[in-house]
Each structure stands twice: as C-alpha cells, then as structure tokens.
C-alpha cells in the first residue's frame, strides 16, 4: 500500500461525503457502546443465572476435568468450523454496491479500498469475543463456580477467539469467489493477500444479498432471508422422482430433497439423535438440571427443522397457482411424514444404544416419540406463520415483540417440552406427565393447523 | 394428435362438460377499480380470448374465474355454483396459469411433472412416461434434469406451461401464455392449445398476440380500461 494510494482513497472518501461531516468514528463506536451496555445489563445477569441453574457444585466438579476440557474444545472447534461456511454466504468485507462499482472496481489495490471494511469486521469480532469472554467469566465468578480471577483469562481467550473467527470468516469469503483462487496461491497467505484475492463479482453478489436480506429482515420476511442465504440445489440431478400415490409421492419428494441436500440431512439426523439422547438422559434422575432438557430441545428443534425443508417450501409456495391435486392441509401434513419418521428412527436407534449401555430405559423412547409430535406441531407453526402483522413493527411494539412473534413456535416447544420432561424426571408416575405432554402437544399441533388453514384461505 | 413436429402427444383424459360463466363481474379495492363489469361464458371445446390494454383487468378476471379472488360485483360460476378454488370440484375442473406457479427449488423439471401427476392419482410407469412426453411435447425434454433456477426466462415459461398441461383439467385459464416465447415456440403452443380444444377442453386466455388470437379464438372479449 503506497502513500499515493492512501491519498487517493482519502480523496474518494471526501468525494463520497461531500459537504457532510465525517461521522465514521462515532457510527463505529456507537454499536460498541451499545454492546458493552447490553452485555453488562443483560449478559452478566443471564450468564450467572444460567450457571446457577446448572447446579454450581455439579458444574464446578465437571468443568475443570479432562472431560470438561474435551467438551469445551469440541464445541469451540465445531463453532469455528461453521465460521468459513458463514463467510461463503456473507463475508466480513461487504461494502455497499455503489462503493464496489465506483471505487473497488477501479485500479486502486483492493488491500487499500477494502481495508476499512475489513478493519470494522475484525474489530467487531475481537470486541464481540472479548465481551462474550468477559460475560462468561463474570457469570462464573458471580455464580461462585470459580474465583473472580477467571475473568481475565476468559476475556483474553474471548479476544483470541474473536481474532480466529475473523480470519476464518475472511478465509470463507475468499474461498467462495466465483473465480476460485488463482493458480499457485494458497490460504492462509496473510490478510493482505486475502483482501487482494476478493473478486468484484463475488463482492457484488454478497453485497446484493446483504441488501436483500437486510430489507427482508426489516420487513419481517424470513422466507426471503432463507431462500437468499441458501444455495440452490444442483446435486443428484440424475436421480428421478418416481410416480406413486398422492400422499406417498409427497414423502418421496421430501426424501429426494434431502438426498439432494446431504449436509442438511446429516445435520438434521445428527442433531435429532443428539437431542433425543439428551432428552432420554434427562429423564433418568430428579437431580438433572432443568437446563439439560432445555438444551436438548434446542438441539432437537434445530435437527427436526433441517428435515422439514419440504414443509417450508410448501408454505413458501402459497399464493401461487396451485397445481397439486391434494388439498392444502393434506399436503402440509404429508410433508411431516419424512421428518417424523427420521425422528422416530433416530430416537429408536439411540434408545437401543443407550439401553444396552444401561443408561436409559427402553420405554424412554415413547417419551421422545411424543416430543417428536410436539416438534412437528411447532414446525407447522413456524412454516406457516407468514408475515408478521403491521403492529409488530409499530413504534410502540419494539424489537422484543417482534422477536416474541417470530419465536412463538420455538418458545412453545421449549416451554412444553422442558416443563413436562423436567416434571417427568421428578415424579414416579411418568404417565401423568406424558398425558400432559400429549395434551399440550395436541394444542401446539392444533395451533399449527389453524395457521395452515389461515394461509390456505389467504392464498 | 402430433407434437415435436410429428411426435405422438400423450393422451389427455376426457374433459367433462362444464360451463364457466362471469356475469357482470367487476372488482374494486376501495376507490381503485381493477375490473369494470364484464361478461364471459366458456363451454366445452371453446376458446375465449380476453383482450385489452394493460390495466384493463384481464388477470383480475382470470383470477376471479379461477376462484382465487372474489368479485366485488356480479357473479362467477362453474356449472351454476360459485367458483372457489378451495372446492374440490373447482380444482378438478380448472387448471390455471396466472403468474408463476409454485415450484420446488430442489426438484428437477421432470420431478415436478411426476409430482403433479401423482397427486392427481396417476401412478406407475405411465405417469413417469407422461412426464417425459409432456416435456417432449413442449420441446424442453433436453432440460428434464435441470432445476428451475437453471432455466432462461423463455424456458421457465415453457416449464410453467408443462406443469399446467400435465395435470388433468377440463378448463384451462392462461394469462398471456405467449409471453417470453420466440415465434417458433408461440406457433408450437398454438398447435398444442388447438389440440386441447379439439379434445374438448375449454380455453380462456388473456393474449396480446394477434396471430394466436386469430388461430385459437371462437370468441374475443375486449375489456375496457378500468
């Protein structure tokens, strides 16, 4: 980067700003200020409450053991593995389209023109990591799981993690380039090299996607967000859907869809297995922390959701000319056959394995099958909820009401599933809790069907 | 019946004898007039072409007659009963292509046709063959294993037409089916629709192509600008 390049960039920025004052420093610092306030006001109390609910003695006994370290490293490695995938869809260097067309496309080096965007993302990632570390450390200290000394290493570790995340994020963006890497170049080869390898077509694609997703989020249109973020299918095109009965062909369609999205299928089955295992283990002792079924349900909800793409596509298609010969509601229910079967299969296999190891009872699989119906109901709700009402965006409503509106299916799963599972672990007559699970689940399913019918009437 | 410049066209089911009628049908939303009152009657083996400038309400009238939109005034009926897409009788009789139809981004073209045909109760090898034959009929069989997002706009239009043609119906409602098609494909489409009419299907088409209108129309309804 030469002094002349820097000078030219300053001139460009001056031309872009015109007569307006340069507020870049304040607009950069304001989100940091808000994040620090939010971390102190909400993050620390939530973290210490979480660690208290986990049973401090149990956590203190397990957190600092080799098994605890392996779990922590594994979870961190898994999260870090996901970061480059995020970078492929939305990288850290995404300037607005006019800047790309007028400045980045010019002969000026990309290491100069893109440096500011990179610095902002890098700084955000490091500060975010520091805050997460500090919040976690403060939570551990206040909950008396460890001494206050933990705050310093937790914050430093968080910052280092932030650096690593930023580098992997950029790495993912460079690898997503439509041009591919030039022959002979490899990554990581230094940040300057990485910025120089970002091509204009890839940057424009991500920037356009950024604008679309940003608008869709503001409008509450999650469908557009999902379709824009997901790469279209091109896998296994030679495998054909074979004709069969009207309901069976819908299930076959969904199986073919999963075959064409193998990572989604693997992720769905893996999370379904992990979630069902967690739920079965949560039933074994009245001393199991309530957070155990809660986390298991979060994992299960994500896994079941990955298997529900056919259901979501059916909901996406409402409002268009209908060509299928099945009623709308029947088609929606037929789309649940594959995720429910996959859930049941994973629950039975996991139960068999854990039963042989003596960790759970064979009858615990019945509980998890009931949870599967709850997940089906909540995904019906999630797929057919449509766009939020105008009131949710009103000046009086605010962000919490919008999050609540979107989160209703998820919250219904967590509240019903956690409450009944934790209760079942604490009472001798499990069938009473199971009856309540079925009763509340039928309410969630009925709610989902009401939303399906409402969407049917609107389309 | 011939397709692909001489290839055999798959047999369609025998269309039933239906009467689709709009009597004084108009549409207003608040003060905005989308469609001035219009009368249309469509019988078996008949083609009615709707003409009119942009904004005259052709698409609105098609939507009302497809049972996906209610009229503000007048009455739209199928065999004397109100047209409502949620009724099985309406869905069985009327196939509509008004705007882009629903597609699944993880299915190829041929998969879509098999799916549609199966949900109408056609199973087994003949249904698989029918899907191939419909694609061949529209001369897009070489695209059978493409996904919808891999098509050009003209190919998309032919694919959408194939989805409407593959499902059984007695009445076809098509909104500007000629759009984005080259002259050769317009001619092919005209021949396919003439065959459908000869087989007994009723066709109600909004169309801006004079040659297609001349070839297909038994009746032309000119809508006034709303």
Describe this structure in words.
Chain A is mostly helical. Chain A has 2 domains: 216 residues, no CATH class; 213 residues. Chain A has 20 helices and no strands. In chain A, helix 14 packs across helix 19 and helix 18 packs parallel to helix 20. Chain A is globular, with a radius of gyration of 25 Å. With 226 residues, chain B is α/β, with parallel strands linked by helices. Chain B has a domain of 153 residues: 3-Layer(aba) Sandwich (Rossmann fold). In chain B, 34% of the residues lie in helices and 25% in strands. Chain B has 7 helices and 11 strands. A 5-stranded parallel sheet of chain B has the order 8-9-10-5-11, with helices on both faces. In chain B, strands 4-3-6-7 form a 4-stranded antiparallel sheet. Chain B has a two-stranded antiparallel ribbon with strand order 1-2. In chain B, strand 1 and strand 2 form a beta hairpin. In chain B, helix 3 crosses helix 4 and helix 3 packs parallel to helix 5. The N and C termini of chain B lie far apart (40 Å). The interface between A and B is large, with 37 and 45 residues.
Helix-strand layout with pairing:
The complex is a heterodimer of chains A (about 450) and B (about 230).
Chain A: H1 3-17, H2 24-53, H3 56-63, H4 66-89, H5 97-104, H6 110-113, H7 115-142, H8 151-175, H9 191-196, H10 200-219, H11 222-229, H12 246-259, H13 262-282, H14 291-306, H15 309-316, H16 328-334, H17 337-356, H18 364-383, H19 398-426, H20 430-458
Helix pairs in contact in A: 2-7, 4-8, 5-10, 7-8, 10-11, 13-14, 13-17, 14-18, 14-19, 17-18, 18-19, 18-20, 19-20
Chain B: E1 2-3, E2 7-8, E3 20-29, E4 32-42, E5 47-51, H1 58-66, E6 73-78, E7 81-82, H2 88-93, E8 94-97, H3 109-119, H4 125-137, H5 153-166, E9 171-175, H6 183-198, E10 202-206, H7 210-216, E11 219-222
Brief digest:
The complex is a heterodimer of chains A (459) and B (226). Chain A has 459 residues and is mainly α.
């Amino acid at each position: 980067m030469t002094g002349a390049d820097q000078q030219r960039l300053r001139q460009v920025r001056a031309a872009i700003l015109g007569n307006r004052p340069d507020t870049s420093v304040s607009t950069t610092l304001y989100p940091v200020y808000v994040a620090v306030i939010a971390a102190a006001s909400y993050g620390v109390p939530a973290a210490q409450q979480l660690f208290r609910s986990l049973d401090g003695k149990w956590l203190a006994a397990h957190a600092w053991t080799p098994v605890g370290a392996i779990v922590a490293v594994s979870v961190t490695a898994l999260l870090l593995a996901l970061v480059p995938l995020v970078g492929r869809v939305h990288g850290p260097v995404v300037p607005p389209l006019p800047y790309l067309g007028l400045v980045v496309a010019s002969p000026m080096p990309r290491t100069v023109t893109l440096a500011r965007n990179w610095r902002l993302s890098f700084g955000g990632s490091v500060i975010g990591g520091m805050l997460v570390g500090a919040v976690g450390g403060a939570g551990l200290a206040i909950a008396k799981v460890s001494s206050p000394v933990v705050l310093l290493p937790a914050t430093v570790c968080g910052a280092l993690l932030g650096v690593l995340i930023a580098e992997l994020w950029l790495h993912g963006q460079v690898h997503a380039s439509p041009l591919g890497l030039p022959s002979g170049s490899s990554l990581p080869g230094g940040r300057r090299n990485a910025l120089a390898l970002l091509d204009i077509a890839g940057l424009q694609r991500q920037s356009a996607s950024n604008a679309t997703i940003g608008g869709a989020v503001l409008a509450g249109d999650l469908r557009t967000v999902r379709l824009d973020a997901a790469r279209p299918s091109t896998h296994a095109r030679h495998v054909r859907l074979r004709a069969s009965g009207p309901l069976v062909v819908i299930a076959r369609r969904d199986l073919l869809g999963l075959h064409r999205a193998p990572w989604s299928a693997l992720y769905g089955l893996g999370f379904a297995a992990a979630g069902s295992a967690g739920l079965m283990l949560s039933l074994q002792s009245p001393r199991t922390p309530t957070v155990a079924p809660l986390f298991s349900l979060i994992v299960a909800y994500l896994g079941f959701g990955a298997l529900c793409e056919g259901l979501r596509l059916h909901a996406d298609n409402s409002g268009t000319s209908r060509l299928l010969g099945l009623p709308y509601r029947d088609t929606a229910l037929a789309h649940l056959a594959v995720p429910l079967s996959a859930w049941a299969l994973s629950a039975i296999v996991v139960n068999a394995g854990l039963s042989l190891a003596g960790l759970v009872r064979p009858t615990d699989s019945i509980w998890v099958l009931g949870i599967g119906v709850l997940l089906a109901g909540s995904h019906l709700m999630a797929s057919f909820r449509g766009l939020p009402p105008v009131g949710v965006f009103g000046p009086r409503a605010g962000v919490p009401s919008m999050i609540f509106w979107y989160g209703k299916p998820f919250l219904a799963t967590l509240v019903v599933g956690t409450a009944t599972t934790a209760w079942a672990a604490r009472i001798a007559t499990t069938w009473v809790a199971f009856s309540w699970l079925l009763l509340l689940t039928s309410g969630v399913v009925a709610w989902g069907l009401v939303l399906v019918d409402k969407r049917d009437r609107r389309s | 019946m011939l397709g692909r410049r001489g290839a055999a066209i798959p047999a369609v089911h025998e269309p039933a004898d239906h009467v689709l009628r709009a009597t004084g049908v108009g549409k207003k939303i608040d003060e905005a007039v989308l469609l001035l009152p219009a009368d249309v009657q469509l019988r078996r083996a008949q083609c009615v072409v709707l003409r009119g400038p942009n904004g005259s309400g052709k698409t609105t009238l098609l939507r009302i007659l497809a049972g996906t939109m209610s009229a503000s005034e007048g009455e739209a009926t199928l065999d004397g009963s109100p047209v409502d897409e949620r009724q099985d009788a309406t869905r069985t009789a009327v196939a509509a292509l008004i705007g882009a139809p629903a597609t699944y981004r993880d299915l190829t073209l041929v998969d879509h046709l098999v799916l549609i045909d199966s949900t109408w109760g056609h199973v087994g090898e003949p249904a698989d063959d029918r899907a191939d034959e419909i694609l061949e009929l529209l001369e897009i069989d070489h695209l059978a294993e493409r996904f919808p997002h891999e098509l050009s706009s003209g190919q998309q239009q032919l694919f959408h037409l194939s989805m409407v043609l593959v499902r059984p119906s007695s009445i076809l409602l098509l909104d500007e089916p000629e759009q984005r098609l080259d002259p050769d494909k317009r001619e092919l489409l005209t021949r396919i629709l003439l065959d459908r009419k000869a087989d007994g299907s009723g066709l109600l088409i909004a169309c801006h192509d004079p040659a297609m209108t001349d070839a297909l129309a038994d009746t032309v309804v000119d809508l006034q600008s709303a």
